[in-house]
Predict the 3D structure of the following.
Amino acid sequence: MHARRLACFILGMWLAAGLTVAWLERTDFRTIQDVLAQPDPAVAQRVKALGAHETYLLMGRVEWERQQRTTESWESVQLILGAGFFFFLLFGTREGKLPLAMALLLVGMVALERFLLTPEVLSLARIAGLAPSHTSSAEEIRRMVLSSTHQGFEIAKWTVQAALAALMVVPRSRRSGDAGDQFYLVDKADHGHVNR
């Protein structure tokens, strides 16, 4: 019972951390807009010298690079966390095949993100950012499709994590697969109706 609680805690922390990272990424670019909308005098002079649009592009580029490093680091952490979580379920708990399969699915999704999706999205985005005039419409469409796929993976991952947490919160005795066994044990303990 304690092992299951620990597993639920780890899963909950993983889900919460992922949602927090996603939320922070969404708010960072708004911060740039807020700074440029009402800059302090020292910043205002530099913005005026460089131009508001150029300043926004420069600050946005720096922020984008920081976000991508955060994304890569977070996905690497998730690989370690996911593998550790899977082996903990396998050797430290008595969970069945479905929770183990869901945990393995999470690890697989993170691995696909880390080694296939994220590097490709970053490569295309850097090309578009450094030489926008040389970027073809096909490359831009591909970048957008890959970015949407990456976001879809994130949503799917959160869904699987939430479903796995819900599955593990339900006691084993209440799961449908164990209901017959529990009924059989209760029926077997009471022989009154057989020995009339």
Observations:
- Residues 66 and 178 are 49 Å apart (CA to CA).
- The radius of gyration is 25 Å.
